[in-house]
Design brief:
- There is one protein chain.
- This protein is mainly alpha-helical and about 180 residues long.
- It has one domain: Four Helix Bundle (Hemerythrin (Met), subunit A) (Up-down Bundle).
- Helix content is about 65%, strand content about 5%.
- The chain has helices at about 5-30, 35-50, 60, 70-80, 85-100, 105-110, 120-130, 140-150, 160, 165-175; strands at about 110-115, 135-140.
- The chain is globular.
Length: about 180
């Protein structure tokens, strides 16, 4: 099995950063929790594919489709840095939210609450009790997963952030404790 060329890994990483900036910008602009979650799902999908690009073929990678739990499992097997219950749970939740993208599912399965900051266990419990039929997502958890996965690509973020505009960079850096960018 021949590994993918670096150019493919770089394109996956560039797409991941674009989706990540767009998802964070959409969240900050109040474009809607589900819209933001969909964009951030793409960001995680593409950064995991960039991580895997050194270890698989493009046809094998396409078999994952958009299934974040499968992609995460494969990337986690290649990167000890990704091995975390929180990262695994975040990928699984984003995948569930990806499945909610159609209005009939939104109406039947509940709504999404999305917060920018890190919640204490007490605040998280209160938020979940106020949304018993829905989903609760913390941007800080997505930031940790994305930034950890980006580091595991073996690429330097500065090479990619130069392509982004000032608003995209600001969206990636605002209230982001990871400071990768």
């Amino acid at each position: 099995m021949a590994a993918l060329p670096d150019r493919v890994r770089h394109e996956f990483a560039a797409l991941a950063l674009g989706y990540y900036a767009s998802g964070r910008l959409a969240f900050r602009a109040g474009a809607g929790s589900l819209v933001s979650a969909q964009l951030l799902h793409h960001a995680i999908e593409f950064v995991l594919k960039a991580t895997l690009a050194r270890h698989t073929t493009l046809s094998d990678m396409k078999k994952f489709g958009h299934r974040l739990p499968d992609l995460f499992g494969a990337a986690e097997a290649r990167s000890t840095e990704l091995r975390s219950d929180e990262h695994r749970a975040t990928a699984a939740l984003l995948h569930e939210l990806w499945e909610l993208r159609f209005p009939d599912r939104i109406l039947s399965e509940g709504m999404l609450s999305f917060t920018a900051g890190e919640l204490t266990d007490r605040r998280r419990s209160e938020a979940l009790s106020g949304n018993p039929d829905g989903y609760f997502l913390e941007l800080a958890q997505i930031d940790r997963l994305f930034c950890t996965a980006f580091r595991s690509t073996g690429l330097t973020s500065a090479a990619f952030t130069q392509r982004l505009g000032a608003d995209a960079l600001q969206a990636m850096r605002a209230e982001n404790a990871e400071l990768v960018f």
